[in-house]
Design goal:
By secondary structure, the chain is of the alpha+beta class. It has one domain. The chain contains two helices and four strands. The strands form two sheets. The protein has a two-stranded antiparallel ribbon. Strand 2 and strand 3 form a beta hairpin. Helix 1 runs antiparallel to helix 2. The longest helix is centred in the last third of the chain and has 34 residues. The two termini are about 25 Å apart.
C-alpha cells in the first residue's frame, strides 16, 4: 500500500504508455525502406482512468493510411520519427526523475521517524 499512491500509479501508467509509443516509433524507423509500409502512431485517451489503486492509460495504435511521401507508398518521415523518439525519451527521463524524487521523499520521512 505504501507504493500504491495516486502519483506513482499515474506515473507508472504514463511510463507504460510511453513504452508503447517508443516501440511504435522504433518499428516505423525499422521499416523506413519497406515498400508500401504505412507509419503508425499512438493515440492516448485524454484521461487516466482510476480503478481503486490502479491507473490505466488507454493507448491506441493507429496506421496513417492517408499519406504517401514516396513513390513506393512508404510514408515514414525519418525527421518526424526521430523528433518523436527524442520527445519520448525526454518525457520518460522526466517521469523517472519524478519517481526517484518520490522515493527520496519517502526515504527522508522514514529516516526522520521516531528514533
Amino acid at each position: 500500500m505504501l507504493f500504491n499512491t495516486k502519483p506513482l500509479g499515474m506515473m507508472r501508467a504514463s511510463l507504460q504508455g510511453l513504452s508503447v509509443q517508443q516501440e511504435v516509433i522504433l518499428h516505423n524507423l525499422a521499416n523506413i525502406d519497406t515498400p508500401g509500409y504505412k507509419a503508425k502512431y499512438v493515440s492516448f485517451e485524454d484521461t487516466l482512468k482510476g480503478m481503486g489503486d490502479r491507473y490505466d492509460l488507454k493507448a491506441h495504435v493507429i496506421t496513417d493510411e492517408a499519406t504517401s511521401i514516396r513513390p513506393d507508398g512508404n510514408n515514414v518521415d525519418t525527421d518526424t520519427q526521430s523528433m518523436a523518439l527524442y520527445q519520448n525519451y525526454v518525457q520518460q527521463l522526466y517521469l523517472y526523475q519524478k519517481i526517484s524524487g518520490q522515493f527520496t521523499n519517502l526515504r527522508y520521512v522514514l529516516n526522520q521517524g521516531p528514533k
